[in-house]
Amino acid sequence: MFGVDVGGTFTDVVAVRDGKISVTKVPSSRSNPPAPVVEGAKRLGVAGSTVFNHASTMGLNAVIERRLPKIAYLTTDGFRDVLDRGNVHRPLDAQTDPAWRRSFGDANRPLVPRYLRRGVVERVTADGNVLIELDEDSARHQLEVLGKCGVEGIAICTINSYVNPAHEIRLRELVHEVLGGDMVVSISSETSPLAKEYTRASTTVIDVFMKLIFTDYSAHIDRELRELGFDGELNFADCAATLLPWQEALNRPFRILFAGPAAGTISSVRLGAAIGENNLLCADVGGT
């Protein structure tokens, strides 16, 4: 069995074979992220192994450092600033102050710049009824603008779509009609079909980022491991440290974001059980 933790500075690979543990450490690579994983597997001899488990802070580091693909955010007209407003109530003395910012926020470093956040004419009410039909001409115009901006993916989150997703589904079809079938798209009604606009919107945005960051990366690792003689299951950990086949994990890739910290936490629990310690304080100090 193999396990790998891909960090921002080093990639640690561990092999367990016949009760013997082997480890190696490879410098991580921003220009070629799969390479250290493959190199570590090659050093420890991955051929014939049945399981290769993968956890990473790569996506989380990209978000923290804002080393992100260029994506757009499509929403109901008038709601494009939900990503900035968040879901924290303002103090009373800041209710009418447009310059107020949370001391711990990242309003000056938005995940999606405001010019790439576009509103389309449509409105679904809280009970799922259509108050304003989707204006497809308006949507096409916004998509043409975004295409000229060179976006690599689009997150779609319209108001109350968790009750009635029809407009989001149609918007996704329009994205592929206008920008091509290979444009990466996530819609909130499938990604996070829950109330609370900011949570649903930010989750959908992260989902698009993770698709762009991990899709080719995962396929590359799988292909390279097969060439090294690995014929087992490549699994990715998610935010609950649940191990899933990599293709299944990429069905909801926003869950990969916290895979590294989650896997470290669960591993610490297992370590505590193995040494008979119920109370542990564990820390992972990485380079990022």
TrEMBL record:
GO molecular function, one term: 5-oxoprolinase (ATP-hydrolyzing) activity
GO cellular component: cytosol
Domain of life, source organism: Bacteria
Organism whose genome encodes this protein: Gordonia aichiensis NBRC 108223
Protein name in UniProt: Putative hydantoin utilization protein A
Domain Hydantoinase A/oxoprolinase, first and last residues per copy: 200-288
UniProt-listed InterPro entries: Hydant_A_N, Hydantoinase_A, Oxoprolinase-like
Species lineage: Bacteria, Bacillati, Actinomycetota, Actinomycetes, Mycobacteriales
Limits of the Hydantoinase/oxoprolinase N-terminal domain: 2-178
GO biological process: glutathione metabolic process
